[in-house]
């Protein structure tokens, strides 16, 4: 039955049209963002890539010295070269352009070289706090600082590449909005639609339908929405990586300056997988929310209204407290840029973990509620629901 | 003992009792379930198809209590709800395939059965049509085809002829008659003329209680002496009759005016047995009190 439901969704022309439209909109939006970063001068961009390529890889003393020298030269002569004409012997076509890139490159390399000291400093401060609050009543502060110390302990950046443009990839959340909309369309009529078309009674009087209907509907919708979501995420990742020539996926996430304080200590490629899983969990929250609305509605129109109210409610909850619910999981930067510690029942927890736990609990609760309504709904809400 | 035994079924929505000690038994053939709206027909059907559990009573299928059969009971059941819309974006064939699969049929059997029942309900030429593009009658016939896919012992049809034009209605009635040869067909309707020539048994239900369960002939006979002819000279008089009496049929009179059948215990102008229809019976049992008779 699961296979049939999945096949049914994938052969639905409206769903496929929605996916195609979403892919086109996403590509357009993504392209517009990337164009802003790349700029319109092809030679500029090519020059930048060449310079970065030259200094990519393990940061050695020689490389650091050379980059420092180039930066000093750029700072000193920046104004003097600003009016110079086109020069084919430069990377970007202009000396001024090359200098701008050297300065940017220097700032990035400086950050990476100094990150080790920064991490040690963070550990030192945390250690001091542990010593200071180690007595009575200081348990919370001690644990909190232990988490901070353990997070930053031993951190250093070894490899250099142009990390700053990873921001383009990780700040892009537009696709999630599109997927939420697709999830709404695909889920909102899952149960109420069957009631409206009298299919519910037909399905419930079949052997498979009687046993598996509710679970199959939830699982099939989840699989299909997740597949669509993965396609969109994959689309924007491949396009961004290729368009910006991103490299250095083996570097730690904190090698990106905007993720200086991140709680995640693993490499970027692993972060991309974990981040996608977080987004899928967040999306599952929306899928179940809309399915719950569908389950509560006797007709498609009423479940649409419930779905919109529930959406506003969950966004409102996010505004009230971003850790409760699952909206935050869709925001990469908010979730992973900081090592935020939250207080839950008197104990400190990393914000991202707490959010994952809250979202999971909420998903399980919604799943259970849907199962309850759809299987025991006759008793709970009156027998006329069939 | 009969194949299907519905025994002392009672059911309530909260405090409102909608079925009170309902019983009947059935063998192969068409059982017409008659009653006005709100009589409890749909609830009884929901209990028979296993959607609702009765508060009291039991249903035996071949001596076995259906509550003990669990999910296996659905192997014996085919059900078509009232005015189904099904999935509009499926073709007729795809929809039947989907239904066959959720009824647990293997692929070989699915193909055979779909062909067989498309032929039976005369939808072979419409197999590639979208369900959303079918006429009301075609959709009802598709409903019957899907309900038959698992070759059920009991076929339950809720108002199958509602909203159909006369030709579609005739086609559907023929189909149901064919199907009922080797199974129990329970057909709920309030269009009594539909079951007159089809039903082997008529079960009448009123306010959730057994009213009568008998052959159509016996049911017709039960109204004898309670239906009389009266003449109405003008439209105004006819309207007065309709207001004050339970009118069953109006026809044009021989010398102008109207010949009207009304429910009455009057001994004059009694409608002869041969002229009594199930509609008259329906009006007699469900049409209200007769003011004329009291006078």
Number of strands of chain B: 13
From the alpha-carbon coordinates, what is the Rg of chain B to the nearest angstrom? 21 Å
* Class based on secondary structure composition and strand pairing of chain A: mainly alpha
Distance between the ends of chain A? 20 Å
- Helix fraction of chain A, binned, reads over 70%
Q: Indicate the proportion of strand residues of chain B.
A: 25-35%
H/I helix tally of chain A: 15
List the strand order in the largest sheet of chain A.
1-2
Order of adjacent strands in the largest pleated sheet of chain B: 6-7-8-3-9-10
Structure write-up:
The complex is a heterodimer of chains A (386) and B (295). Chain A has 386 residues and is mainly alpha-helical. Helices cover 70% and strands 3% of the residues of chain A. Chain A folds into two domains: 2-40 and 164-385, no CATH class; 57-160, no CATH class. In chain A, the strands form two sheets. In chain A, strands 1-2 form a two-stranded antiparallel ribbon. A two-stranded antiparallel sheet of chain A has the order 3-4. In chain A, α3 crosses α5 (95-132), α4 packs across α5 (95-132) and α12 (268-296) runs parallel beside α15. By secondary structure, chain B is α/β, with parallel strands linked by helices. Helix content of chain B is 32%, strand content 27%. In chain B, the strands form three sheets. Chain B has a six-stranded mixed β-sheet with strand order 6-7-8-3-9-10, sandwiched between helices. Chain B has a four-stranded antiparallel β-sheet with strand order 2-1-4-5. Chain B is globular, with a radius of gyration of 21 Å. Chain B starts with a strand and ends with a helix. Residues 289-295 of chain B have low confidence and may be disordered. Classes of the chains: A mainly alpha (386), B alpha/beta (295). The A-B interface holds A 1, 4, 8, 12-14, 196-199, 201-211, 378, 382-384, 386 and B 13-14, 46, 49-52, 71-72, 74-75, 77, 79-89, 98-99, 101-104, 146-147, 150.
């Amino acid at each position: 039955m699961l296979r049939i439901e999945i096949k049914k969704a994938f052969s639905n022309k409206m769903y496929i049209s929605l996916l195609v439209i979403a892919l086109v909109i996403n590509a357009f939006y993504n392209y517009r963002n990337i164009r802003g970063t790349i700029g319109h001068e092809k030679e500029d961009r090519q020059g930048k890539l060449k310079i970065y390529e030259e200094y990519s890889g393990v940061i050695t003393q020689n490389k650091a010295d050379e980059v420092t020298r180039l930066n000093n030269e750029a700072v000193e002569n920046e104004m003097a070269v600003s009016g110079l004409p086109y020069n084919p012997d430069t990377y970007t076509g202009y000396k001024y352009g090359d200098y701008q890139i050297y300065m940017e490159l220097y700032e990035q390399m400086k950050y990476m070289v100094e990150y080790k000291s920064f991490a040690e400093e963070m550990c030192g401060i945390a250690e001091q706090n542990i010593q200071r609050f180690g007595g009575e009543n200081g348990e919370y502060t001690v644990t909190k600082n232990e988490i901070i110390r353990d997070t930053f302990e031993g951190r250093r950046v070894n490899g250099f590449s142009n990390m700053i443009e990873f921001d383009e990839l990780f700040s892009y959340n537009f696709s999630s909005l599109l997927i939420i909309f697709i999830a709404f369309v695909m889920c909102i009529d899952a149960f109420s639609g069957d009631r409206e078309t009298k299919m519910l009674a037909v399905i419930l009087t079949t052997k498979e339908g009687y046993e598996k209907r509710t679970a199959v509907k939830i699982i099939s919708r989840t699989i299909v929405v997740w597949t669509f979501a993965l396609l969109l995420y994959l689309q924007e990742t491949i396009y961004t990586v290729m368009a910006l020539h991103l490299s250095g996926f083996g570097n730690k996430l904190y090698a990106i300056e905007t993720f200086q304080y991140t709680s995640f200590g693993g490499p970027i490629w692993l972060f991309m997988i974990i981040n996608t899983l977080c987004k899928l969990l967040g999306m599952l929250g929306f899928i179940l929310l809309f399915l719950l609305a569908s389950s509560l509605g006797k007709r498609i129109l009423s479940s649409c209204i419930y779905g919109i109210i529930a959406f506003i409610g969950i966004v409102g909850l996010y505004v009230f407290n971003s850790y409760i619910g699952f909206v935050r999981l869709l925001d990469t930067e908010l979730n992973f840029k900081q090592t935020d510690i939250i207080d839950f029942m008197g104990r400190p927890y990393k914000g991202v973990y707490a959010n994952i736990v809250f979202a999971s609990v909420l998903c399980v609760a919604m799943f259970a509620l849907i199962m309850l309504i759809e299987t025991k709904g006759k008793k709970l809400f009156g027998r006329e629901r069939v | 003992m009969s194949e299907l035994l519905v025994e002392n079924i009672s059911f309530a929505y909260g405090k409102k009792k909608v079925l009170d000690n309902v019983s009947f038994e059935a063998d192969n053939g068409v059982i017409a379930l008659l009653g006005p709206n709100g009589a409890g027909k749909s609830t009884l059907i929901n209990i028979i198809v296993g959607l609702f559990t009765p508060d009291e009573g039991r249903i035996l299928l071949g001596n076995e209590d259906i509550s003990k059969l669990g999910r296996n009971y659905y192997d014996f059941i085919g059900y078509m709800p009232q005015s189904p819309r099904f999935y509009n974006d499926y073709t007729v064939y795809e929809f039947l395939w989907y239904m066959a699969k959720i009824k647990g049929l293997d692929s070989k059997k699915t193909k055979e059965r779909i062909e067989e029942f498309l032929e039976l309900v005369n939808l072979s030429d419409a197999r590639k049509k979208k369900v959303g593009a079918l006429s009301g009658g075609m959709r009802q016939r598709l409903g019957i085809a899907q309900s038959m896919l698992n070759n059920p012992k009991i076929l339950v049809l809720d108002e199958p002829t509602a909203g159909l034009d006369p030709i579609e209605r005739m086609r559907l009635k023929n189909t149901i008659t064919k199907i009922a040869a080797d199974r129990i067909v329970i057909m709920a309707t309030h269009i009594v003329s539909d079951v007159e020539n089809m039903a082997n048994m008529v079960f009448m239900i009123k306010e959730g209680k057994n009213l009568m369960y008998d052959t159509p002939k016996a049911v017709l006979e039960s109204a004898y002496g309670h239906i009389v002819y009266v003449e109405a000279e003008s439209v105004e008089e006819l309207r007065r009759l309709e207001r004050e009496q339970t009118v069953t049929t109006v026809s044009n009179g021989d010398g102008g005016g109207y010949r009207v059948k009304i429910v009455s215990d009057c001994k004059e102008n009694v409608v002869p047995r041969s002229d009594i229809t199930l509609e008259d019976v329906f009006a007699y049992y469900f049409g209200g009190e007769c003011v004329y008779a009291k006078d």
